[in-house]
Amino acid sequence: MAIRVQTAAFDPGAEVNALHAANLGVGAVVSFVGYVRDFNDGREVAGMFLEHYPGMTEKALAKIAVEAGERWPLLKLEVLHRIGALEPGEPIVFVGVASGHRQAAFDACEFVMDYLKTRAPFWKKEQTAVGSCWVEGRASDEAAAGRWAK
Amino acid sequence: MKLKVVFFARYREVLGLDGEAVEGEFVSIEQLRAHLMQRGGAWQVLAESNLMCARNEELCKLAEPLADGDEVAFFPPVTGG
């Protein structure tokens, strides 16, 4: 299990490859990459700043990853989230899951993203033509996370 | 008890404050929140119904009890990913 919170850009392809490298038991890798869009809520987005809660961020992501490992038989799990200034087109987040068979990897990847969206302390501030504004939380994200309640 | 209270994102901007030390007796985070809101003005931001909070870097509910030395964080709904 790897948790990384960083300002530096990353290469999603390299992250995917690393998930099955040196482990011939891996039969499935599922990954999610989130990118900065140039448009949101009817406004052009010139850039974004990602604030977080140092200390809690890493703990919250680790807790989500541990829970995923308890729910599904996973071989590897990586969560990488960027902070600081980002431009449209840049990757923000990577979640990669390796398992023996595909279903566990599909489910665990969705679970991690749904929980990350509602439980990890990150906040997006978008720069637009009318100034910068904080992105509002979405009820649909809460509903998505609620699917996994036991 | 002595607490460290921190704010993030929009709350941090509205309050013009990253955080502060707060001294007093608070049974729960809810009581601490009420105490801060009594200051009026910008502090009313803490009345928002979707406010989130954490105790010692763990998400929790407003009913969470407090102990001396705790770090309490208030912030709007998270928007990462």
Helix fraction of chain A, binned, reads: 25-40%
The helix fraction of chain B, in percent, is 10-25%
Instruction: State the strand order across the main sheet of chain B.
Output: 2-1-5-3-4
| Shape, principal axes of CA atoms of chain B | globular
**Most extensive interface: pair and counts?**
A-B, 27 and 17 residues
CATH topology assignment of chain B: Ubiquitin-like (UB roll)
Number of domains of chain A: 1
Q: What is the residue-averaged pLDDT of chain B?
A: 98
- The number of strands of chain B is 5
State the end-to-end CA separation of chain A: 23 Å
**What are the secondary-structure elements of chain A, in order, as H or E?**
EHEEEHEEEHEEH
Q: Stretches of chain B where pLDDT falls below 50 for ≥5 residues?
A: none
Could you name the CATH topology of chain A?
Aldehyde Oxidoreductase, domain 3
| Total strands of chain A | 9
CATH superfamily of chain A: Molybdopterin biosynthesis MoaE subunit
Give the oligomeric state of the chains in this entry, treating copies of one chain as homo and distinct chains as hetero.
heterodimer
Low-confidence stretches of chain A: none
The coarse silhouette of chain A is globular
- Written as H for each helix and E for each strand, in order along the chain, the element string of chain B is EHEHEEE
Describe, in plain words, how this protein is organized in 3D:
Chain B: One of its GO terms (biological process) is Mo-molybdopterin cofactor biosynthetic process. Chain B: Pfam families: ThiS. Chain B: InterPro entries: Beta-grasp_dom_sf, MOCS2A, Mopterin_synth/thiamin_S_b, ThiS/MoaD-like. Chain B: Belongs to the MoaD family. Chain B: Keywords: Nucleotide-binding. The complex is a heterodimer of chains A (150) and B (81). In chain A, the strands form 2 sheets. In chain A, strands 3, 4, 6, 8 and 9 form a 5-stranded antiparallel β-sheet that branches. In chain A, a hairpin with a 2-residue loop joins strand 3 (39-40) and strand 4 (43-52). Chain A has helices at residues 12-20, 56-71, 102-119, 139-146, and strands at 2-6, 28-35, 39-40, 43-52, 74-82, 84-86, 91-99, 122-128, 131-134. The longest helix of chain A is centred in the last third of the chain and has 18 residues, at 102-119. Chain A is an alpha+beta fold. Chain A has a single domain (2-147), classed as Molybdopterin biosynthesis MoaE subunit (Aldehyde Oxidoreductase, domain 3, Alpha-Beta Complex), CATH 3.90.1170.40. The mean pLDDT of chain A is 96. The relative contact order of chain A is 0.24. Chain A contains 4 helices and 9 strands. Chain B has 81 residues and is an alpha+beta fold. Chain B has a single domain (2-75), classed as Beta-grasp domain (Ubiquitin-like (UB roll)), CATH 3.10.20. In chain B, 20% of the residues lie in helices and 28% in strands. Chain B is built from 2 helices and 5 strands. In chain B, strands 2-1-5-3-4 form a 5-stranded mixed β-sheet. In chain B, strand 3 (52-55) and strand 4 (58-60) form a beta hairpin. The N and C termini of chain B lie far apart (36 Å). The mean pLDDT of chain B is 98. The interface between A and B is medium-sized, with 27 and 17 residues.
